Amino acid sequence: MIHSSRLKFPKTEYVIATSSCGHSRLKSIIFTGFIIFLVYVFCGSVLWSAGKVFVSERDQLILNIIKRHDDEIDPSNGFPWGSHNSPKGYHSNFDKGTRVHPTRAAMDRAMLLLASPKREHHVEGNKVLERVLELQDCDPNSKTFGIWSWYAEESLSEMATVDYNWADFQGAVLVIILHDFAHRLEADVRARAERSLEYCCRAIIKRNVGAAYTNIAITGATVTAAAGEILGNEKFLEFGRLRILRSLNHFRDSGAFNEYNSPAYSPVVIEELERMLYVVSDIECRNAAKELLSGAWSMLAIRYHPMTGELAGPHSRSYADRLSVKVRSMILARLGDWGNDYKLTQSAAELSVLVPKRQIDERLRKYFLEIPSKPREVKNLFIKSRPAFNVIGTTWMDTTSTIGTASYHTFWEQSRGLIAYWTIDEDNKNNDNITSNKRNNNLSAKKSTNKTVAVFRLRFKRNGNDFASAWGRHYQKDNKILSALGLLVDQGSMHPSMDRSVGGVFRAESFEVEYHLDGFGSRVKRLSEFCYEFSAGSVRVIVHTTPESKFDGEPIHWRTSSNVTSATLTGVCYSGVEREFVFSQLRDTRIILGLELLQDTLKKYEPNAKINSNNFKIIETNFKTTRDGSFYGIIWQNLNDKTPLLAPIKPTQK
Prior knowledge:
By secondary structure, the protein is α+β, with helices and mostly antiparallel strands. About 30% of the residues lie in helices and about 25% in strands. It is built from 13 helices and 27 strands. Strands 7, 8, 9, 11, 12, 13, 16, 22 and 23 form a 9-stranded antiparallel sheet that branches. It has a 7-stranded antiparallel sheet with strand order 10-14-15-24-19-18-17, with no helix packed on it. The protein is globular, with a radius of gyration of 31 Å.
């Protein structure tokens, strides 16, 4: 017997025919379908937890980063292991190389875990974040309120000097955690994170750095403005707004940042301005951030040298002579279609994956991608100060080489006041290898790893280490440079201020001027009594010394050394038994040098004449100012015959 039943739907009729035994078959089909559905859900959840399906490209990158660093994690606390890489006494009292748990890396780890699509990572992220927050100074009466120490193993009181920047850096990560992942925090951890961000802001406001401290001024502005909106604190928002506007006015006044052309901190500035544009809605903050971001990219673009893949000098602050893969990746990630390449590099700017990147202005792309067809010079004001101490940057570049100087700088380890780069053709094809193929424009960092780019620097050292109490002044015209070096009485040795000497008193067993060339095939030789030649590949640097140069009234002695990858010209100012030097009491101390960067090593260089004091015309005391003391003037050949380079006669204050 056949039954017919009708199910009526608007405008449509569906007929289902069943037999008396069809009910059991239908139940069986439904049951089987339900089992298949459960299996599908179970398998899907397993694959989800493994991060294999339903994961966006961004989420997969985060999972890859977490996995890549799993071996570096201490299972006892979830903190990454690291090592102290600065000299002992530079904030930390640990010896260089000591194995430690960096608190900043731990905060970054917590953020990445919370950003992961995996729930188990969220649980772990809460635990790591809670442990990091416990290390913050939470005592409102403490001088270091709101700050973290560098390492979990070393408290704030045990550090050589506290780094107050940790309120800014840690606060910047907390801003992202609370802006993007607050819903993944346990209630008590979220409340603690909000209090911690408040403490960061109070520390930032109390310290109140000026706009001249470029990266911290902008980072602190981002943290306080974002915290003001996240926490509903108008005072924090107003402070952040005023600070970013102050940074903008400072930039407009001089046209640059005090931390000028910095491979280390220009990326920090760019990423913090991008962070502000991501997390802050205040229109005044956003407009200021957009203008500053455009300015920051302009400053980098005009001094980027595509053929070497390096940021041409001078550099206010740098931790290495060559651009890191991280910085190259940061640039690639913002070059539009080219940005996809950065994901292929293992050392990409990993944590910045959480903040949307803003593409470089179209008008600036050519500076990163196109090799200059003819030599050009860039000159601009970096730091606006009293006239004798304004800092003007000059950079010259052609298709294969670039050299840059700051008109005034100190010789502390992060300063690159005179630095040059050029390509080295290992197959002796000279310039035949130059290509305009944009995809091979050295942003891949190949050049920095196999040393096919030469680096040439000027340094001043005490006991073999870069010396922060020496200064350099340079006059540059195209590829020629006149230099004068001297001493300061109010700075430190390792750092300009951390180990400051009162009155310029230092014990030393050596003081040296050093020209150093790093790159395959580096050579240096003496051409005449006061003339030396460096070479590597198709480029050479001619260094001119002078008998007028003295240190504490004694002549400077020059010596050369080289191996297959480097060459050095050392001017020995003092070498002997360790003794005390009081800079304010030194006899005649002035070091005068000339330099030419030239192409074509096949043609023998012939000095115009025997180098003697007549080539460097010294004008003793014709130049004086009321504030900065007496100066002498220097003219070298026809380089600056109408504009003498001025240098203080005696050791001076910065």
